[in-house]
Design brief:
By secondary structure, this protein is of the alpha+beta class. It has a single domain, classed as 5'-Nucleotidase, C-terminal domain (5'-nucleotidase,  domain 2). The chain contains eight helices and 13 strands. Helix 2 crosses helix 6. The longest helix is centred in the last third of the chain and has 18 residues. The radius of gyration is 19 Å and the shape is globular. It comes from Streptococcus pneumoniae.
């Protein structure tokens, strides 16, 4: 069964390396998040506004020039998580992304900051780093943890434009059941939720029809966007009808009033559920399987 082909030939490498998916936006993260976003448009009682999943739950790279099999899909998403949708306020969305982007910075053996290709400091890998769809988050790692988010834009499903996050508005967030319950320290999430299918099932269905050539760039910096706050200007949007990965932007000046509304520090607790992809979560998964077998016997 694992050898069954989902895609006959992948035109791109979808990168799931730990030093990428736990640090910054990747093309694999975009594809998986887009699969949640697409399912959420019709799979729940209300269409999804934002989809996120934690990088620690993405465990394998999909090679270019080879078939994508059911086994590859399971290797990427091995934990059996289901898709869940919860209601969140804009403030909770802001707090969620401050948490996602709150890691310490990488340094080399000489104690110097490790920079990305745009000259911005890279975060230390964190299993809780969010891969996203339906949203654009502009952040500066030079700023203190908890104050790095400069602006957030949420895709308007009617116009195709990205509107500024409204802190008082209610949004529908699709994610995995682990994060929806507050896992990986996301204590701002939780509450009543709708349950969908397994993430791997939604990912597999999305792969069957997705134009994977749109995901060619491994680190696109197009959704979770690392910028220098000293020179940052908020992009103006051209309405689009395609998936978030393809949305184009042009720059317009950013008023300081806009940036200022995203300065509240997230309240974060690490005393939550075990991290997805950690040894603890794997142990708990195995123990659950053993317990289930014991019940059958």
């Amino acid at each position: 069964k694992n050898a069954v082909e989902v895609v006959s030939n992948s035109p791109v490498e979808l990168n799931g390396d730990r030093e990428n998916v736990r640090v910054r936006e990747t093309n694999l993260g975009n594809v998986v998040a887009d699969s949640l976003y697409q399912y959420g448009q019709t799979g729940f009682s209300h269409p999804t506004d934002i989809a996120v999943t934690n990088g620690g739950g993405l465990r394998e790279t999909i090679a270019k020039g080879k078939p994508i099999t059911k086994g590859n899909v399971i290797a990427v998403l091995p934990f059996g998580n289901t898709i869940s949708q919860i209601q969140v306020t804009g403030q909770q969305v802001l707090d969620m992304f401050e948490k996602s982007l709150g890691s310490i910075l990488q340094v080399d053996k000489d104690g110097k900051k490790v920079l990305d290709e745009n000259g911005q400091p890279l975060l230390e890998p964190s299993g809780g780093f969010l891969q996203v769809s339906g949203v654009k988050v502009y952040y500066d790692t030079n700023l203190p943890s908890g104050k790095r988010v400069l602006a957030i834009q949420v895709k308007n499903r009617t116009t195709g434009r990205y509107d500024l996050l409204d802190l008082a508005k209610t949004y529908y967030l699709a994610t995995n059941d682990f994060l929806a319950a507050g896992g990986d320290g996301y204590t701002m999430l939780g509450g009543a939720r709708e349950e969908g299918p397994s993430m791997d099932a939604a990912f597999e269905e999305y792969l069957k029809t997705a134009d994977l050539t749109q995901y060619e760039k491994i680190n696109p910096n197009s959704r979770t966007i690392s910028v220098d706050s000293k020179t940052f200007s908020l992009p103006a949007e051209t309405p689009q009808t395609n998936v978030p990965a393809n949305d184009a932007t042009t720059n317009v000046p950013l008023t300081y009033e806009v940036a200022g509304q995203f300065s509240k520090k997230a309240v974060v607790s690490e005393k939550a559920l075990p991290n997805t992809g950690s040894e603890q979560s794997i142990f708990l998964l195995l123990m659950g399987m053993v317990a289930g077998l014991a019940g059958i016997l």
